[in-house]
Predict the structure.
Amino acid sequence: MARVLVTGGAGYIGSHTVQKLLLSGHKVAVIDNLSTGFKEAVPNQAEFYFGDVRDSNFVAEIMSKFDAEVVIHFAAKLNVAESLLKPVEYYDNNVGGTLSLLKACEKSGVKNFIFSSTAAVYGDSCTDGIISEGTPTNPLNPYGWSKLISEKLLSDTGDLVGINHVIFRYFNVAGAAEDGSNGQRTANAYHLVHLASQAGVGKRQGLKIFGTDYPTPDGTCIRDYIHVEDLADIHVLGAEHLLRGGTSATLNCGYGQGYSVREVISSALNVAENKFPVEEADRRPGDPASLVADSRKMQALLGWTPRRNNIDTICRTALNWEKTLSK
Ligand code: UFG
């Protein structure tokens, strides 16, 4: 049993992780400013502290009071398009938040740190579509840069001041809790599976396919969709790895299996109650053709095996959650 402090624990991935930590017998405290998160997503068994991670004194106080052994840092802004419009806000939140948390760790003596990063750090530097952690990084937007700079802050200071750390680079996170208790609550989330689920319950007229002329088998972009509960399990294993004294690492999180936009939509239509129309549209700027994770390093280090690596499971759980929200 460990004492885990989760920043952004009221958000989509954070709240699923809090649930899995509790189920594994850990004690959890959450810090969240509820700017995009939802208090009701935080299980009652977790302590909840309303506040901003950029307030380093406040965070250090909670760390000491809760006697945290490991921090999992989710709290961040994560919309690529918004980051191009509000770059300063993104750097302030994401880089400033990470720096503030590091200061708090130093002050209160927390030695284990897990960081939420993203496949956006790779940009489109990968030509064959399979991305390992050794693939050169080349972010294409302030969001990706804010995560890469945060990674650097953590690995540099972590190595020098003795904060062991795991950096997880997420590919396309989707789906909802299999028991229907949790899911994506942000009404204006723009991700493909989420939009398809909204269309599937009739909250949206239909869906557009952004680009059908990519150099992929069916002409649409390929992504590696990972179920949010599998990703949550990975965080529990990451925390336990650090608490055992495991080495610091940067690890991709995905299944190593890609699905095209057409395949995702076809799966979403299979489970949909409302058989929504699909329209072919122009490419969305900045979309790489294919992003698939080589996650073998993560699997070997943490002993993780995928449990929900099925696009139908992802679309079904997302749709069921969307139905719950409609009630
Ligand atoms: N897409 C459509 N129609 C839509 C929405 C999306 O065709 O209505 C397409 C996109 O063009 C893209 C694919 O579906 O080809 C996936 O798009 P998402 O917006 O769901 O996800 P992205 O791959 O663009 O980005 C996500 C996260 C990023 C993260 C990245 C890592 O939003 O934060 O995965 O792979 F960096």
About this structure: The longest strand covers residues 112-118.
